[in-house]
Amino acid sequence: MKIAVIADPHFHDIDNRQGVGRGDRVAVRTLADTNASTRVFNESFHATRALLDDIVRRGISLVVVAGDLTDDGQASTMAAATALLADYSRRFGLRFVATPGNHDLYAIHGRHQSKRFLNADGSHTLVTSDPDMEQGGSAARIVSDEMYCGGYGTAIPAMGAYGFFRSEGDLHWECPFGHDDALEARSFEIVSADGRTARRMADASFLVEPVAGLWLLSIDANVFEPKNGDLDPAAEKSYHDSTDAGWNSMPRNKGFVLDWMKDVATRAKASGKQLIAFSHYPAIDPLNGTSADEAKLLNDTSFLRRTPLPDASKAAAATGIKVHFSGHLHINDTAVFRDGDDWLVNIAVPSMVGFPPAYKIVEIGDGRLEVETIVVAEVPAHDAAFPLYRVEAAREATSAAVTSAANHADFLSRHLAEMVRHRYLPKEWPRDLAALVPQFDLGDLERLADMAAPLTVDDALPLLASLPRRAGADWQELPFFEMIVDWYRLRKGREVALDFIEPERLAAYRLLAARFAAGAWPAGCLQDRLASFMRMTIDWLESAPSRDFSVDLSTGEVSAKDHLGRTVRRQTGSA
To answer: What average pLDDT does the segment 435-447 reach?
Structure first.
């Protein structure tokens, strides 16, 4: 039995004209917005089709979608995405089973969305559902209800065919509230932290048996907790966004779901069902023990804010579900959490709109799950938006270097570099380190590792400028920025990233990491901070791979072949 697990398609319909007045202009998001985002937008239109075509070619008919099917839940986008999946179901017999992501819906009432779409001359038009949204620097503004992101009452019925309601042919279906699949029967009370504000909220979790012996457990880990105060229940700002909450909010706000999960796991074991659980959010820290170093280097990042805390992982493992697939972070990772006799394997599934573009194939065997990571590098018409990007770049006097990409995977790799330049360095890195990056190369880092005296960034720049450079290898000329981009490639792709980084660079990174590991500096100085950076690099280089592996369902041991063909085992995140 094989199933495909995909995550975060973020489908955006570039053919949609988005409201009156668009004429025959396509809805292509700006390159500026793309470069500043954690995902690409327009390329999802063709990438989702290429992904589904690859699944069809492999003869797989059951597809799990681990959330964020849509770009941002806009009504028109939801209609286009569900129509696409319906077409593949009709033509190829694909059955989709999904969980909602934070981009698919918002609380009960939904929220406004506003996007900038390119015009033929490189300017852009603002299309928004919010009549109060200012036009800003856009050439024009269009207000359209098609841009509104719905809440549970509209989004779940729109995706209803993906297991959210009982389907003819299902051998079993239930939810935490029983066997009634009506959405109005699947609500609970959620209370603000001060206990004074209560709201009725829906939960879209369900269990379905689509084929004999296989139970698919879809966990709605979206948590929309009301903020303190008597706020408008229909306003977006009245709720804590589930984007950063995820599993950390589940024990406090959705304990009934955890209780139900434990009951499901017990019944699955007793009845000999193979249970596969999935939600949009990771249930285990995907940084594999490097969170402390990342916090030390970068302080509060969006990645750290979305990282499950040990108590949340402990609660998830205590349910007995054993194997959990997740999306949300757009990374390729496998982690194991242990707490006494409880254990949980979390398999993080990449996205086709973030590096690396990939999905998972799961083969269910005798007491094991065999998991294969499939990279979809080639996407027909991957460059459909490139001509408009070039016009925009010429108009704004910015770079369109990403449009030199040879294929979709190369485009995403280049996009990651732009994301580092436009998002990560200016928004997440400390200002002093971010300012240092463009001025350093690897040779400078090597010299810093050799200095016993602790330095600040302000000390290091004039000191290194005053010292003669040593003649050395070519790698010493590599800009520090390029290493940081590779650092993010490894952070997001693990073993898959090795296909995108030259072996000479990897050798240089290992050498530098060894030099920094041999030093001893006071906490907080420049060398100490760079040593944290190096430790994370090596951890991601040397840790067991997350590409192709198997899970022993009786012990939780994860075994795989690494890029050298060696058999390795992974037991990360143990408590």
So the answer is: 93
